[in-house]
Amino acid sequence: MTHAFGQWTLGLEGGDPPPRELIGGKAWSVARMQALGLSVPAAFVVTTAACRAFLASGREPPGLEAEIDAGVAWLEARTGRAFGAGPHPLLVSVRSGAAVSMPGMMDTVLNLGTNDVTEAALAAECGDPAFARNTHKRFLDLYSHIVLRSTAPEFEETRTPAQWRAAIAADCGVEVPSDVREQLRGAVRAVFESWNSRRARRYRQHHAIADDLGTAVTVQAMVFGNLDARSGTGVLFSRNPTTGAREPYGEYLPRAQGEDVVSGKFTPEPLSALGAQMPEVLADLLHAAHRLEQAGRDAQDIEFTVERGQLYFLQSRSAKLAPHAAAHIAVDLAREGLIDEKAAVMRLSPDQVRILLSPHVCAGALDNARLLASGEPASPGVGIGVAVTHSDEAERRAQGGEAVILVRPTTSPEDLHGMIAARAVVTEQGGSTSHAAVVGRALGLPCVVGCGKGALDQLAGQTVTVDGGSGKIYAGALEIEAPDESDHEALAQLTLWAARISPLRVVPPSAPEAAAAVDLSQNDEAADPDKIGRVLSGLKGARGARGGVVASEEGVRAALLAGLEFIVAEPVLPPLLAAVRAAEAGATPEVQDT
What we know:
single chain; D-amino Acid Aminotransferase, Chain A, domain 1; globular
């Protein structure tokens, strides 16, 4: 259920939300949590339609400004607070929200609505001038860097807001507006523009996300995790995103706001710290996580804030999982009856299985290995290469054919190109919900975080082996070995289910039937993903094929379109998954498009 303010903007009131394509994943999540009766700060959304209109014309679509003002008035009525005035000022967060989850790729502004007047009112209301000043500083920091594109260094605590604003103006030639509605218009525009930022474009390209979807903008009343000793913020996964264990996994940072956790600049505490201080809050959080998982039929990534002992939910979405966890959770959800076997098979991609079956460090290789650094294991797998400390260098050297490891103090969205190019990522700071950890898991990239100050200098320039499963970095290139599908209980189960569902059989080279397959290993065109379709369509009367790129996604699709009965590949699960996905997308002989 929503309240329309016009053509472009909707107030969120729970119930069945409009499609994600219109309001984005963030607002859709807010509406779903409201419908479950959870405590969610009031919010309205500027739709993706407004973003597309903005990107097409380069300016706000007609009527949007008035609709945003109406949305603000609606928030004021629901919160009993005033935007830009006391005695109870309303501050808001402005967040991007694409229909397809793109964690960390676009921009967020917190504490918007702060100026000298509202700082004074906030200080009087809560009785804590230091908190009000800190909130003002946080707003200026985010607004200047995201909206005004300032490169001014972090503000000194001893300075005043006027001095901070002067430093911003001196750096970028633009002043932070004191008019809170002007602040809001600038932030909405910045979120729209962030859709086409370099990091967002690279993320979409890597994950095959369409460029014309646009992002919604969610404007939500602020709650303050940095208010007092009984306040904080955190991230909870309903199941372990690294191992897949059916247990809650997360972190909590007292007296902090959400950006502190995901930035990687601070190392949070385990959830047990929240339980020790406020056990009733942790109990409510875990109960809600179970409800959200049941409603979403998937492991959930939940952002929450505690303000003076009151729990608030900011977002819940399907968790980005390491491949090992994705396999285990898919099988567990099917066995628990939340999804069926086909849905479980569709939860895992061929690339994730290939990562799981990629080589790992041999046990004997560790006997004489020299440990260089260790941290928190954030994404499993093994990466071997030369440690480099800059993303641009990582990309350049990888394009030259060199294996590289990206080592950074902490990563930000601006490091995405370096992460994609690297074999593994290591950071000095941050925890398991930092940018490096979340994006590393999404990419299936080995990742170790929180190695401590000095790790950069210790590793740079050396050939190292990064073990993302143990959180250790070793000198040199250690001996590795590749696992088998049968060694992994969840993969063995998914293989059985996929074989029953797949329209294309996949047999190993040792199977008797493999001898009947046409061997394409000497066919140069069969090694080209762009030409494999033509090769397979020309195999008259063949039942099966082997060699070339026939086991790739392009090869599997081409085999289905050519009407083959089977292909030969090892391991068999990745092409089985590719066949199920291709069939879902319509790749059958009856709908050939070649």
